[in-house]
TrEMBL record:
<dbReference type="Pfam" id="PF04641">
    <property type="entry name" value="Rtf2"/>
</dbReference>
<dbReference type="InterPro" id="IPR006735">
    <property type="entry name" value="Rtf2"/>
</dbReference>
<comment type="subunit">
    <text>Interacts with DDI2; probably also interacts with DDI1.</text>
</comment>
<feature type="compositionally biased region" description="Basic residues">
    <location>
        <begin position="191"/>
        <end position="202"/>
    </location>
</feature>
<feature type="compositionally biased region" description="Basic and acidic residues">
    <location>
        <begin position="226"/>
        <end position="240"/>
    </location>
</feature>
<comment type="similarity">
    <text>Belongs to the rtf2 family.</text>
</comment>
<dbReference type="GO" id="GO:0005634">
    <property type="term" value="C:nucleus"/>
</dbReference>
<feature type="region of interest" description="Disordered">
    <location>
        <begin position="182"/>
        <end position="306"/>
    </location>
</feature>
<protein>
    <recommendedName>
        <fullName>Replication termination factor 2</fullName>
    </recommendedName>
</protein>
<comment type="function">
    <text>Replication termination factor which is a component of the elongating replisome. Required for ATR pathway signaling upon DNA damage and has a positive activity during DNA replication. Might function to facilitate fork pausing at replication fork barriers like the rDNA. May be globally required to stimulate ATR signaling after the fork stalls or encounters a lesion. Interacts with nascent DNA.</text>
</comment>
<dbReference type="InterPro" id="IPR027799">
    <property type="entry name" value="Rtf2_RING-finger"/>
</dbReference>
<dbReference type="GO" id="GO:0006274">
    <property type="term" value="P:DNA replication termination"/>
</dbReference>
<feature type="compositionally biased region" description="Low complexity">
    <location>
        <begin position="241"/>
        <end position="259"/>
    </location>
</feature>
Amino acid sequence: MGCDGGTIPKRHELVKGPKKVEKVDKDAELVAQWNYCTLSQEILRRPIVACELGRLYNKDAVIEFLLDKSSEKALGKATSHIKSIKNVTELRLSDNPAWEGDKGNTKGDKHDDLQRARFICPVVGLEMNGRHRFCFLRCCGCVFSERALKEIKAEVCHTCGAAFQEDDVIVLNGTKEDVETLKGRMEERRQKAKLGKKAKKPKAVESVSKPDVSEESPGPSKIKTGKPEETSLDSREKKASSAPKSAAANGSSSGKVGKPLCGATKRSIANSEESEAYKSLFTSHSSAKRSKEESAHWVTHTSYCF
């Protein structure tokens, strides 16, 4: 069984030792992180978004992931923290003018330079290929190299001019330590948002209840001081005087005589001290009243009725 024909086996061929740990190629890892979507493993194409942990995604892949409500939905470490489209930020990337892509490689015999990147830093000009640390601002989505932020220290974005803070700076494809710090910031930010929503609810309830209380209880300026008897007499006199005035004004504006108010007293002309000529102008006078014989009958006396 073997060893025939003069073959001499060696020790490492007969004795199996422990397997060596396979090392990941760093260049291949950088290409996968900076050129492919973390969720769909497809080539990054605009619009490109980034999560709060600094990972790159295609926006279409994130939307499809959020809309997929099936039980077979893949939930991994890369997408477990994305609950809505608000958890990602659309990036404003600057194109690299020296990048040709697949235009010059029509025959397939051209060497692909992995160090050449599609995007660059708009301030320093470094290529975004993983050799240099890049970060983006969560408030506006502009992408810069970390060197640019350190050399040009400012509290305003270099391209759009938006104000930002240290918490808004998120490192793209950072180390494990960077991911842990970003995860802590993300949890703190979400807890503050929840507490803010809870604080708004009691305020809304108080704003609804305040108008009811103000209508029932008048303020100190509305309370009148003085004796109760005097105030009651004055109020009665004012009501009596204002009632005929308001009735006359309503009648003149509408052209029709309205009903008298409940507080106003009826005035009869027959009992007044006016002259008889003045009284005869009104229907309440005795001259205006007719007897039953003088009043007209409802039957019309025409020749057609007989």
